[in-house]
Amino acid sequence: MPLVEVYRTLASSRRRRGALDFDAPEAEFVIDNGERVSAIEFVSRNDAHRLIEECMVLANVAVARELRERRQPALYRVHAAPEEKKLEQLRSTLRVLGIELQLPDPVQPRDLAAIAARVRDPQSRPFVESLVVRSLAQALYSDENIGHFGLALKDYAHFTSPIRRYPDLMIHRALRARLGLLDANRLPAGSGLTAQGADLSRLERRADEADRYVGTFLKCIYLRDRVGQTFDGLITTVMEFGCFVQLLELGVDGLLPLASLRDDDYQMARDGTHWIGRHSKRRLAPGERLRVVVAAVKPVEGLIDLELAPD
């Protein structure tokens, strides 16, 4: 079909320019007739979803380029290059996983996109991709067009999307002003446009936080009836008070407190990257898999307490 060929061409273009393209499955909640969470399913994008996404990106680029070339004030969707401090944290964590990371200066999106491909274990690849995502700057709305690092694009704006955002409407108005269909004097410009970009970026972060809270709350509600059950887990973060472990079946993190580790006397490694059992030499480090038992759940706080499962 012609549209399939369009998708393949656009996807090939994305790969050539080295854009980041992580595709972790998203959790969907199955709600029964009693309005209880009966199951959590992970859904992946298919080629139809990717086709729509690539066409949306193409439309967004075309509009952003037109506004830039015509010098029409507008809010671009910008994404800065990652800070060196975050890249160093990424290097340190990957080193624990046995991956030595050498990056050019300045770093390019294709350099970060190539990291996950070096992971041989396909089940560990989403975790490594999440580490790369954590090292990135946050995308913002700004009247200063600095480009979009993650998509490896010079021009990008939120012009079209499955949901109608206010920044999309602002781009529509800027485009109408450019076409002479709207009085440009009615649109914000200068410091007013800068302030509006900052406000919309802040509100987007607040909405994302609310979305994460609801997702974590529902997962906790689901786990509340499963206290005492055992799950496969992956250590994501090591702290001085224990480890955060992601329950792979649910995609939610719980805390494995140091005080609950009764199988050995654990000591923090000198570099602070992992815990080591004094007698067993067992390593509790990011990327390590283990079996854990759900000990307690606090949905309102979004907290899950874990214990090591018996060997």
Architecture overview:
The structure is a single chain. The protein is of the alpha+beta class. It folds into three domains: 2-79 and 139-221, no CATH class; 84-135, no CATH class; 226-308, Beta Barrel (OB fold (Dihydrolipoamide Acetyltransferase, E2P)), CATH 2.40.50.140. Helix content is 37%, strand content 21%. The chain has seven helices and twelve strands. The strands form four sheets. A five-stranded antiparallel beta sheet has the order 7-6-5-11-12, covered by helices on one side. Strands 8-9-10 form a three-stranded antiparallel beta sheet, with no helix packed on it. A hairpin with a 2-residue loop joins strand 5 and strand 6. Helix 1 crosses helix 2 (47-69) and helix 3 (84-96) runs antiparallel to helix 5 (125-135). The longest helix has 34 residues, at 191-224. 22% of the residues are buried.
Highlighted features:
311 residues, alpha+beta, OB fold (Dihydrolipoamide Acetyltransferase, E2P), 5-stranded antiparallel β-sheet, 3-stranded antiparallel β-sheet, 7 helices
Note the overall shape.
globular
Largest sheet: 5 strands, antiparallel
Q: Quick one: how many beta strands?
A: 12
What are the segments in which pLDDT stays under 50 over at least 5 consecutive residues? none
The pLDDT mean sits at 91
Q: Radius of gyration from the CA trace?
A: 23 Å
* Beta-strand content bin: 15-25%
Helix segment tally = 7
Oligomer: single chain
Strand order of the largest sheet: 7-6-5-11-12
First and last CA, distance: 54 Å
- SSE order in H/E notation? HEEHEHHHEHHEEEEEEEE
What fraction, in percent, of the residue positions are helical? 25-40%
**How many discrete structural domains?**
3
Helix/strand-derived class? Answer: alpha+beta
